[in-house]
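Tutorial, part two.
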Amino acid sequence: MPGTHITDRQVSLYMKNRQTNTPAVAAAKAGFSTSTAYRIEQDPRPPSQKVSPRGRRRPDPLAGIWDSEVVPMLKAAPGLRSIAVFAEMRRRHPDLSEKVRRTLERRIRAWRAVNGPDQDVIFRQEHEPGRMGLSDFTDMADAAVSIAGQPLDHRLFHFRLAYSGWQHAHVILGGESFVALAEGLQNALWTLGGAPADHRSDSLSAAFRNLDRDAAEDLTRRYEELCRHYGMVPSRNNRGVAHENGSIESPHGHLKRAIGDALLLRGSRDFPNLPDYRRFIDEVVAQQNTRRTKEIEVERGVLKPLPPDRTADFEQTLVHVTSSGGFTLRKVFYTVPSRLIGHRLRVHLFDDRLDCFLGGTRVLSLTRGRPRGNGRHGHVVDYRHVIHALRRKPMALLNLVYRDQLFPRRAYDRTFEALLAAGNDRQACVITVGLLSLAHERGCEAELAEALDADLEAGRLPDLPALRERFQRTRAPVTDVVVDLVPLSVYNELATLHPGAAA
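Running the prediction step on this input gives:
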């Protein structure tokens, strides 16, 4: 048709038909005119080979620097970013326009496609059911979650099955450690109800940092033993090759976006306590899993059965309880009941708690603390452990190292500050210790805190005797019990009965 460009396929069809037909017939079968056929007879090349490259319409802005400066720079430093090359050219040639940046980037990209080094190739994998499980940690700082008004510094341990996409997330309060990995992985497997054949993780990359050879080998051994307990073949990613764990790295983003959406729908990022936040994460993950129900059921059918019991998901260490009424572990001081002073405790160190044993008996469980910033020691303090000693030495409160952590609620701290401001340090210590003692003995910590807040809001200092009277123990009324005594003559009558006789 006039005005229509012929294609390479039409030329090929014409040349095929021309072998047995005249130019006019072959042209008709190819769909163009006889005159076009005669032009093809003169030059049988396909149209794509006749197109001459378009010449440059504007002067080349890189003509003076490309061959002489940019190309040698790219050859000397193949990994150099285009933006860095542009910055260096602007430094050398201040008159170089900002508008040529995109031109330079396209030119570098095209040059590297022809002259650049070989790049790594990612080989997409087919995953069979029950074969591969993957795990890693992901930071949750962007979520801005808080517990009872306090920001929660945490991570998620994220586990995923490569085939079905089933996933599990566990809130981790500390850093990347074997304890966190062991706890999170086992929680995932027991929730799943089975174990895959292989487990790949980059989760211990942070834990291996700054370890000597013996410590690194011990960590590797413990990881292998953990996987062996569940019949899994362990593996770790090559250092610096994140895409080897791509089946978990990409879902990190999907999960975090889902959590972000759920937080927006919830209307608040603050949770009353940590268990509530963990339940929230479980609900978000469960919703994600419902989208892959069929694949999950297929994979569950080929998973390895779980062993009878979990293996250890804690670190074990020994500590000595000092005369300070506690012990120091991992740059954190913990108070314990003073009756344990002088004893050695065996401690099971979990991600979120410490279980303390005296011999084979667990004597207490403590919330795990973390060191403060700038290398400063942290403190986990329970005022109930030391209040009896403070009653004998109330002035010790004034300059106590862990004074701020001693107060169970903000109201007690505010009260102490108000008493100090009144100008009598001794009275401030005596009254504050008395208030803590009252909270402990009468079991009224929360109610007493409300009363203290009310006094402070009204501009009053606490009246300790009045508060003692207000929160004194109320004795339960004694119930009169009436017992009807049986006459002794009844027993005499019973003694006269013979076996088998009717009563």
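The chain has five domains: 8-49, 70-115, 132-300, 315-380, 383-470. In part three we will examine how such features are distributed along the chain.
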